[in-house]
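This section describes the prediction task in plain terms. A model, or a person checking by hand, is given the sequence of a single protein chain and must write out its three-dimensional structure as a string of tokens. No templates, partner chains or ligands are provided. The sample shown here is typical of the held-out split.
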Amino acid sequence: MNGMNSVNSVIVVLSLVLGVGVPAAAAAPSGQTAANVVVEVSFQAEKPHPDPFGQIDLEVVFTEPGGGSRTVPAFWAGGDQWKARYASPVIGVHLYRTQCSDTTDAGLHGVEGQIEVSPYTGPNALFRHGPIRVDAEGRHFAHADGTPFFWLGDTWWKNLCQRMTWEGFQELSADRKAKGFSVIQIVCGPYPDEGFFEPRWENEGGMPSTAKDFSTVNPAYFEFADRRLRHIVDSGMVPAIVGAWGRRDCDAMQAIGNAGLKRHWRNLVARYAAYPVVWILAGEIGDEVKWGSGPWAELAAYVRRIDPYHRPLTCHTSPGQGRRGADGDVSMIDFDMVGGNHDAPTAVSEKTLAILTAARAQLPPMPVLVGETCYEGHMQQGFQDVQRHMFWMYLLSGAAGHTYGAAGVWHASVEGDPGVANVYDWTTWQEGMHYPGSTQLGLGKKLLEQYPWWRFEPHPEWVDPGCYAAGIPGEVCFVYQPRRNIYNWDGPVVKNLDPGVEWLASYFDPATGRTFDQGVIPAQAESGATEAQPVVFKRKVPSPQDWVLVLERAKPE
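The expected answer:
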């Protein structure tokens, strides 16, 4: 198949339209795809179904060349059409057979076929290295082949709505990819801060459902959503799909009910689980919802059960909260997404950091990150210096990644319509896209990726209070020093380092990406000594702003 390995070939379509009188077990035409690239298989019902979404369950059992199998739910695509999407890293011929709740429909039940999977040779890391998962140590994320994955997320909660045009979506995707973002957090379902079934939910295909209990589905809505979510993957970024919102004033569980949300989530899993996605069960599930029991926990267990790929699953919490401190069993989530504070003065306070640190200390180990922060420019605050402070403070304190957000972007604001019932700000998404913080966090990610950042551990004992340090003892040390007053140009004091190591020192400007070489810091004691005097730099910081100090073990000549 021409172009099968290109970045833009996320779906290879195989249509299996079976007419009346075709034997149920007849071999269907073969399909082809590349490793980890989604192939779509279509089926046509032979008999009418009055309620196809609510009454028909269709699954496709795919069998790998080695004998392993994966049961993939199919989704109703409108009319008499059903589709299943499949991806696998296993090279060779994969066989499949359908299982339908209506065993008398020969177009849906017992249909057999095969897919040939060849090696992927394109540049997209999500196909070349595979989808992301929790790494073997349980602290960070990695691709399926073990390649470390740096989570730098952006918040696009409402960018599947029609306010964000297809052309705008492509422009924003290109901007974020160029800046180094790797995850896009986006809602595919009921939105926050908007009335239930408010027209602002709509995309070019309408509402996601035609019934408030989600007993129906609107395939046209999801066809337009499909194109956008595929484009995120085409761009080499991971869609982190939020199914709904859980905050009290827009509580999807209360408005839709567990049965409706299960129907909604089955449709999401059927459509998108084959892609390299992350699941966020709901946004802002409050502290009153204890993890391990109750309707949200039941929903999480359901998503876990029907997802044949076991994509990473979490929930997004209210500001200042984390799930690891909740009562009950947290085994159904794979990582903890701590909620930050939206108010700039408190966003950089120690409160959220304390929640992150406490969550990270719990066992079994689980990646922890701040999944929503003070948006840059939100209510004319939280600008670039705040964004840099949060990024470096959290990452050097053990976070597995970081999620950024910008006013205008998160709610797809356009001129004259901010896209929220309560006007937070009048920033458009085009304006928010160019806020400098998004560039600066990308520069920070680029610097960290020059080192084995996934091996970094927090080391607060290396610095005085007010600074943040992490690294690998004897190999590399990162120190973030927030801005102090304009007359204080003193660099940080670094202590308790390996006293027998010579260090190459440099200051990294987190605002511009410039590096200022500070020369070699000689060993403070003979090798084997147990204590060393604090390392004090004779040269002050180049200007009174925030700085990242990088100490790297000098290589022997």
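For orientation: The chain has three domains: 11-123, 127-451, 458-553.
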